[in-house]
Design brief:
Length: about 300
């Protein structure tokens, strides 16, 4: 039977295990996909601790396969699926977990992988790059405006800087000193994170900061709000809704559509977006892959590669 990396109950890393699972059967509107690569994201370990996405009220069935996004090859399609067939190369958000040899994608959250896009890059787009894309477009800033991104060296942050640059925005990235070169290579002005960072941000952008895309939350989000005269231009993907609304800002609204997946894939193929996959692990080392993200200081993206 195929293998998958799961959590067996809510808790810490000790709840994780490899198990053999039945190959899933695609229902109506679903694709059965042989996974080639799985993106690793903070939400993977957060779900393991019991966190629920807003609106997710269903009962969790254990063991639950870790992972939210994959790329791979369609093995079979469910009833009523148009536009996808066995053999197609695809990527998207999974229904049944991504750290596995097989998974199910709903067609509304799946897209064809362009030939020029590597499986490992494609696997990182549905969560981090799509969240970056949704947030930058939600802000709808005019060309030449200045956007500040906190958590700028992580998966969403690095993508947000590049997507904003491609739209003609000026970008300021707040990240630890060790990520200075990385943030600058993405076309941003680097501001070191840590105590006093907002004063350094003011100094780095003397003409003012027009909007903030926060990916850290907590005190960083609160301090970020002080940079703005118009707090409606404060958005976050890294903090709960009530935290940002209290400050006058909003959570990023996720589009979660195939159209956004197509758009971010085009950005990669056109050379405007590099997902910066910096660490690759085989499925047998899925736990190590998740630890590098759970540590909270990832640079770019971490990917699990599944033998094709
Ligand atoms: N709502 C959604 O749909 C959605 C989707 C994707 C992600 N998210 C959330 O967005 C957040 C970012 O995701 P990600 O994938 O970009 O995570 P990531 O790749 O782990 O990056 C997080 C970045 O935050 C920085 N950081 C951590 N603690 C910090 C602190 N105390 N002060 C300043 N910077 C700090 C780290 O940079 P340094 O090493 O430089 O400190 C790291 O590069 C997570 O909370 C994630 O769950 C939400």
């Amino acid at each position: 039977m195929p293998k998958a990396y799961v959590f067996t109950r809510y808790g810490g890393p000790d709840t994780e295990a490899f198990v053999e699972v039945e190959r899933p059967v695609p229902g109506p509107g679903q694709l059965l996909v042989a996974v080639r690569a799985a993106g690793v994201n903070p939400v993977d370990w957060k779900l393991r601790t019991g966190y629920r996405r807003p609106g997710d009220t269903g009962e969790r069935v254990f063991p639950a396969v870790l992972g939210s996004e994959v790329s791979g090859v369609v093995e079979a399609v469910g009833e009523g699926v148009d536009g996808f067939a066995a053999g197609d190369e695809v990527f998207g958000n999974t229904l049944t977990g991504g750290y596995a040899e097989y998974t199910l994608l709903p067609v509304r959250l799946a897209a064809h992988k362009p030939a020029g896009l590597a499986f490992s890059d494609a696997a990182t787009l549905p969560v981090a790059a799509a969240t970056a894309y949704d947030g930058v477009h939600q802000l709808d800033l005019p060309k030449g405006a200045t956007l500040l991104v906190t958590g700028a060296g992580g998966g969403v942050g690095a993508a947000a800087l590049q997507i904003a640059r491609a739209l003609g925005l000026r970008v300021v990235g707040v990240a630890s000193e060790g990520k200075k070169d990385f943030v600058e290579s993405l076309g941003a002005v680097h501001v070191p994170s840590g105590p006093g960072w907002s004063d350094r941000a003011r100094a780095a952008a003397p003409d003012g900061i027009d909007a903030v895309y926060d990916l850290v939350g907590g005190e960083v989000l609160t301090e970020a709000a002080t940079l703005l005269t118009d707090r409606t231009r404060l958005i976050t993907a890294g903090a709960p809704e009530q935290d940002v609304e209290r400050l006058g800002g909003t959570r990023v609204t996720r589009a979660r559509t195939s159209a956004v997946l197509d758009a971010v894939a085009r950005l990669v193929v056109n050379g405007d977006l590099d997902p910066h996959v910096v660490q690759r692990f085989p499925l047998a080392e899925a736990g190590e892959a998740l630890r590098t993200v759970e540590d909270g200081h990832a640079r770019g993206k971490v990917v699990i590669e599944v033998a094709g």
